[in-house]
Amino acid sequence: xxxxxxxxxxxxxAGGFVRRLRDRVTRWLAPPRLRxxxxxxxxxxxxxxxxxxxxxxxxxxxxxxxxxWRTAVWGSAPGTVLLVGAFLxxxxxxLWKTARRRTLRMPPTEAAxxxxxxxIPLLLAKHVAGTAGLAMLEGVEDSYTHVLSLQWPGExxxxxxxxxxxWIHGCIGLHFWLRLRPWYGxxxxxxxxxxxxxxxxxxxxxxxxxxxxxxxxxxxxxxxxEQLATGTxxxxxxxxAYGTVLAVALLVxxxxxxxxxxxxxxxxTYPGDRVIRVAPxxxxxxxxxxxxxxxxxxCGGRARCxxxxxxxxxxxxxxxxxxxxxxxxxxxxxxxxxxxxACQLRPTADLTVQPxxxxxxxxxxxxxAGGQDAYHWGVEQPxxxxxxxxxxxxSLSERRLTYDVVFILNRYLDAMARAVRAERGxxxxxxxxxxxxxxxxxxxxxxxxxxxxxxxxxxxxAMAELNRDLEPQLGAPLRIGIGIHVGPAILGxxxxxxxxxxxxITALGDTVNTASRLETLTKxxxxxxxxxxxxxHAAEVELAAARVEEIAVRGRQSKLKxxxxxxxxxxxxxxAAPA
Length: 579
Fold this sequence. Notes:
Layout: H1 13-28, H2 31-54, H3 60-74, H4 77-99, H5 108-137, H6 144-151, H7 156-178, H8 184-215, H9 225-257, E1 266-270, E2 274-278, H10 284-290, E3 309-314, H11 324-333, E4 339-341, E5 351-355, E6 379-391, H12 393-398, H13 402-422, E7 426-431, E8 434-439, H14 445-469, E9 479-492, H15 496-499, E10 506-508, H16 510-525, E11 529-532, H17 533-539, E12 547-551, E13 560-565, H18 569-576
Parallel strand pairs: 1-5, 9-11
Antiparallel strand pairs: 1-2, 3-4, 3-5, 6-8, 6-9, 7-8, 9-10, 11-13, 12-13
Helix pairs in contact: 2-3, 2-4, 2-7, 2-8, 4-5, 4-9, 5-7, 5-9, 6-8, 7-8, 13-14, 14-17, 14-18
């Protein structure tokens, strides 16, 4: 029976594999991915080149020795193909993106990256023609001794300017790429120091080595008239070729920026019935920027995040389909069919849109804010989540004065929070007489699972001490129930719109719900701790005395294996054993 007959289409695993492979290849060949990959190759080359320059602080000989290693890598056939290919791809994509621009409104960092990137080939043309060009065409030695001799002192300013341009452009690109990583905020100061130190050391080594050769009379900076003519011809030819292509790209952009009254125009309707009429071509994000409408775009419109996502309320059928890169992002966040990335959707017909993320305090909008960490925008990573709850406290509090209740509760919550922090955990929130904590945010889920289990041991020890201290005031000892689960969760500063960077980090998702469910099961099993098999497996601990159960969890097809533990004290020994 065919699908047209009303039955299910036959299962075609081979066809599904081909489609998935095609989508993956298409996604990796998408311009944003190619631009990132080629940029990383070029940045690696520049970084090693500048660090090699810095060795001139010690000696030219050391520069030459390390240069031999670099040449063995980048000068090999695969290295040359990779480097030249990355350069051509990166420049071509930059020119293509420039020609397609429909607005010059952009955040300052994006503008700086664009201008510096377009200037790099102009600044490097002479250097490349005089080194690689002459080495290939005339057999001129391109050793450090020879190149430094040629460049000192007349070419120092141009080389310094080229080096800074390349370095700043690359660092801005890395910033856009890494800013959503959870660890980036913690390492930002170190990375900034490195970003400043590398060009300074490179300039110091370059200048010091060149001056030393010149003072000692060891410079060999001479070229024959034929070699000089060849180098000049290569330089001028390269400059003319790139200048022509750049001029064409800028001309195309200028034409696209001009308002052409006779061109067909479409209407984009924003919330509040604000209608923008524009010629087809720009993306929804560009249309927002062209008209001063704040629109979130953390990654700078590169389809590396979903902050510009927009719901198309009307007119979606007449729009171009999402590309592989956009589909990958939308699938990752589980977006419904009416949601598109504003940076990728280029309207071809009238449509009504509603940006889904507020643009307030968002880099890349009319109101910018620097310094937010990745959690301000939300990140997804595997973590261990722990819930702990105080058993029977409601009935206990009914028989006591308000002051006594608050005093006991504060002592208990403080003890639980100290246990969490002692094991490098993060207190997410206090929920009445319960605590939610996150482990593994900085050191990974495996370490987080061991830390969460260790925190459970500390919590039981803290409760024993608390019961001893409060024995005169308690009719019965206080008891707790703990649930721990590990898995992917969305971490973000919920409430950041009002609290900014001071808003606390919280975890969202099925992992959190499952951990809460496990904590509730401690009542049913009469246990202190209920922990999932995923936690035990990741922590690599033995729980021989635990009660093993399989439970159904809402939203999961398979059952979840859990361990119920009545006494967590033996866990300390299990955790102390080699993992």
